[in-house]
Design a protein that fits this description.
Shape: globular
Helix content: 40-55%
Distance between the termini: 23 Å
Structural class: mainly alpha
Strand order of the largest sheet: 1-2
Number of helices: 2
Order of helices and strands: EHEH
Low-confidence stretches: none
Largest sheet: 2 strands, parallel
Radius of gyration: 12 Å
Number of strands: 2
Length: 75
């Protein structure tokens, strides 16, 4: 299963990280034993409406994913 974690149009890094944490936790919860590939943003094309590369970038995505993984481990 592949899940894309970008094109959110969010404008604040902390909001994006929070969303990534929630999505990661949810996807892993409902995926069961199915392997999951999380697609993360690696673009730098500013000026489009559906993403902001200053917000949606690899560093912010990984911070959020890490937080989501930690949530799942704490259950």
């Amino acid at each position: 299963m592949v899940v894309m974690l970008y094109d959110t149009a969010l404008q604040k890094p902390k909001f994006y990280q929070y969303l990534m944490a929630g999505w990661t936790d949810e996807v892993l919860d409902w995926s069961g034993n199915t392997p999951v590939l999380l697609g993360v943003p690696t673009y730098d094309d500013a000026g489009v409406d559906y993403h902001n590369p200053k917000v949606e970038n690899l560093a912010n995505a990984l911070m959020g994913i890490h937080r989501g993984l930690a949530r799942g481990l704490c259950r």
